[in-house]
Amino acid sequence: MDMTPLIPSGKQVITAYRPGGFKVSGAEYQGSVIVFPDRVLPWPVSAVEDLSVESLHPITAEDAGVDVLLIGCGSRMAPLVRLKKALRENGVGADPMDTGAACRTFNVLLAEERRVAAALIAL
Fold this sequence. Notes:
Helix content is about 20%, strand content about 30%. By secondary structure, the protein is α/β, with parallel strands linked by helices. It has one domain: 3-Layer(aba) Sandwich (Hypothetical Protein Mth938, Chain: A). The strands form two sheets. Strands 5-4-8-6-7 form a five-stranded mixed β-sheet, with helices on both faces. Strand 2 and strand 3 (about 25-30) form a beta hairpin. The mean pLDDT is about 90.
């Protein structure tokens, strides 16, 4: 039985994560990235300590169209209470988790056609 979610055509699917980078819809990315349903942006964050509202500006921008942000914190989840509160004030719900879980969850929410993005810290 194939358990892969059916992703609408033209969407960015995270197909692999590995130390130092990601593979999204056939393209290789080195370092951390922000994945939207329609594009991938390099992200200059290498550790949870580097996270700030400013580092997530591509998500909070008015035209981003994101309701849910998955934050891949690296190899371990971090609570990020202050950051979650600040994002909520900007109309974005945030869910921190380890990077692998964020990759998998992004694909599921994308298949459900949710307005989701994933900010992924490379392992």
